[in-house]
Design a protein that fits this description.
The complex is a heterodimer of chains A (about 325) and B (about 325). With about 325 residues, chain A is α/β, with parallel strands linked by helices. Chain A has twelve helices and 13 strands. The chains are: A alpha/beta (about 325), B mainly alpha (about 325). Chains A and B meet through helix 2, helix 3, helix 4, helix 5 and helix 6 of A and helix 3, helix 5 and helix 6 of B. Chain B: It comes from Streptomyces cinnamoneus (Streptoverticillium cinnamoneum).
Chain lengths: ~325, ~325
């Protein structure tokens, strides 16, 4: 259980985290979502006692992180991959972490096996790929077999097999009754793993809701229709009192009617349909609508409005990094 | 959630297939999701979890300074920069010391009132630069790589982290310096005994070995403190080079009589002159603080810098 109360962090005149209050509960995966520069990493660093809040508190199972007697056995955290000395071997990196908390040496072998790095345990981490670095960071988080796990952008740099693995890992950890808190700027990724969602933008809390609730409220479902008898289809829909939205490619989008009904309607009027497909607006779009006013770094493109410039899964990935993040990076 | 479930078996294909697909990265083949030691049922009592959370089979005990010391020892011995800096230091100190001793021996000149042990001084001037570098790197490399955040997450007691680093670094440097100084002093004594008129007392021997080693290791602690304050390897090393060399350089440029007092102080309290004082004998004293005084001065400086480093470490964001 992690409790944030009125957490605020200023860097000079810039407010990175703005009166955040929410609770991360055990037994589920809680997704922590926000555009780049929203304050996710800063919040996580404050949770771990690395950065001092300007005001407000974070409590881990009722205590301040610095009061924990056995931190690695209570909280395991992956902050950034490559937060390790490149000249040290994977095994020694984990060993010095384990020793600082009195964790037995055998556990190092265990977590190396868990993340699949046993074969490169003796290699210096300098030569690791980003994905391997992530795995080593995750191994460090699992070292103390903690009740609370925090992952900052864990899928960054992982291959599809690795992404699949980390999703299952997080779900399994939560199913064991642990608290799992994972940040991401990818809504699509969160939709697959998180049970609960905390969304922030420019340091402010935008949503604190269950994933199912977020999907229910934000996913617009509609039916897409395309016909060579374009004009007739419009007339028929008008005649039946059904609203539609025409699209530039000639398709019509109908909200609030099911596909069966629309298909039968077209058939009765002998209209040939080339497409009749139920659609769901992506959660990515819903997320972008939610954070539209809170995006700090808009990509500027003379020909396209910012909102349309970042489609699909690549959302935000190619944007400039936050200068505030640089401080920590 | 009163009954925590045990980890489900791995779900993805590569593990179930006897042969992993060709082209997949080798390290990924061993990915297992077995989180716990065999027989987790026996490891803990599920009902004990507060709020039905997860309870680990790993025994919980309070982490101590001893754990931090062990951890820092693993850190310092598992990177090449330690081997390089200390290796170069040994090479310079012992090598130059022996060369000077042999060279002096071959000339057969009299050292008059000088102590034969003084030959260690020449290598020492270069050796301290290596110690400074290692002292700075002990902490600044953690800031450079971002490891410091992992370290402070594992040990949120920042004072304990700094203490453990200082103790491990000090003991390692002191031990190696002691071995080197004893070796060089004994070689120098063996070779040059007949060329010197002084008979080094126990105090002269102690200062040339234990004294020099303590002073060097304490100077390294100052470097560690500066590294903590500046969090930047190159910057901190540069500052330490300034501390070592600048007083002498400034003294050279203070040629006017008006500044002669300051010039004298700069010279006497400069680190090279203080190092030379450890080799002085009563028959051949240095100007300025002698005997064991330089060590107490350096210890005071180290205490002040480490105090500042501690305050900075606790106060600033990592």
């Amino acid at each position: 259980m992690i409790e944030l109360a009125d957490l605020t962090k200023d860097y000079g005149d810039v407010r990175a985290v703005d009166h955040l209050t929410f609770t991360v509960r055990p037994g589920i995966v809680t997704g922590f979502l926000g555009p780049n520069g929203a304050g996710k990493s800063t919040t996580m660093r404050m949770m771990l006692g690395l950065d001092h809040p300007t005001s407000g508190t974070v409590r881990i199972d009722g205590r301040h992180y610095r009061r924990l007697q056995d931190p690695l056995k209570t909280v395991g955290a992956l902050l950034d991959a490559k937060a390790m000395h490149g000249g040290r071997s994977a095994f020694n990196h984990l060993l010095c972490l384990a020793q600082s908390n009195g964790i037995p040496r055998a556990r190092v072998r265990e977590v190396l096996d868990t993340v699949g790095l046993t074969s490169v345990a003796g290699k210096r981490s300098k030569g690791f790929s980003l994905g391997m670095g992530q795995r080593l960071g995750i191994a460090g988080a699992l070292l103390g077999d903690p009740q609370i796990l925090m992952f900052d952008e864990p899928v960054n740099g992982l291959d599809p097999e690795g992404i699949h693995w980390i999703r299952n890992l997080m779900k399994n950890l939560a199913a064991q009754g642990r608290t799992v808190f994972v940040s991401s700027h990818l809504m699509s990724e969160m939709a697959l793993t998180a049970d609960h969602l905390v969304v922030i933008g420019q340091g402010r809390l935008l949503a604190d809701t269950s994933m199912a609730g977020f999907i229910r409220e934000n996913s617009r479902s509609f039916v897409r229709m395309r016909s060579p008898g374009h004009e007739r289809l419009r007339d028929v829909l008008h005649g039946a009192g059904i609203d539609f939205v025409p699209r530039s490619d000639g398709a019509l989008e109908v909200e609030g009617e099911d596909a069966e009904h629309l298909g039968e309607l077209a058939a009765r009027h002998r209209i040939v349909l080339h497409e009749l497909s139920p659609q769901q607006a992506s959660l990515e779009e819903a997320f972008m609508r939610l954070t539209a006013g809170a995006v700090e770094y808009h990509a500027h493109d003379d020909h396209q409005p910012p909102a349309a410039a970042a489609p699909g899964a690549a959302w935000g990935t190619d944007w400039r990094k936050s200068p505030r993040k640089k401080k920590g990076a | 959630m009163t009954t925590p479930q045990h980890p489900a078996p791995p779900q993805h294909a590569p593990q179930q297939a006897p042969q992993p697909p060709a082209g997949a990265p080798a390290y990924a083949h061993h990915a297992h999701q077995a989180q716990q030691a065999p027989g987790p049922q026996a490891g803990y009592w599920p009902g004990q979890a507060p709020g039905g959370g997860y309870v680990s089979p790993i025994p919980i005990r309070r982490a101590t300074l001893a754990d931090a010391l062990l951890s820092e020892w693993t850190k310092i011995r598992s990177v090449r920069s330690t081997v390089w800096t200390l290796g170069v230091m040994v090479l310079l100190f012992v090598g130059i010391g022996l060369l000077v001793a042999v060279g002096f021996d071959s000339t057969g000149d009299s050292m008059q009132n000088g102590s034969p042990l003084f030959v260690g001084f020449f290598g020492l001037l270069l050796g301290i630069l290596c110690v400074i570098t290692l002292g700075v790197l002990t902490i600044s490399s953690e800031y450079g790589t971002g490891l410091i955040r992992t370290t402070l997450t594992a040990c949120p007691n920042r004072g304990r982290v700094l203490t453990a680093k200082a103790v491990v670094f000090f003991l390692l440097t002191f031990t190696i310096m002691l071995l080197c100084t004893v070796l060089v002093s004994m070689a120098a004594w063996t070779l040059l005994e007949d060329q010197s008129s002084v008979d080094p007392s126990a105090d002269v021997w102690l200062r040339a070995t234990v004294g020099v080693s303590l002073y060097t290791a304490t100077l390294g602690l100052v470097a560690l403190g500066v590294g903590t304050l500046l969090r930047h390897s190159a910057g901190a090393i540069t500052v330490m080079l300034g501390v070592v060399l600048l007083p002498l350089v400034l003294a050279m440029f203070m040629a006017t009589d008006a500044l002669s007092d300051i010039r004298q102080a700069f010279f006497e309290y400069s680190i090279p002159n203080q190092l030379a004082a450890f080799y002085a004998t009563s028959a051949d004293p240095v100007s300025g603080p002698g005997g064991w005084t330089p060590l107490w001065i350096m210890a005071g400086v180290a205490a002040a810098v480490l105090g500042g480093a501690y305050a900075s470490l606790v106060k600033r964001d990592a």
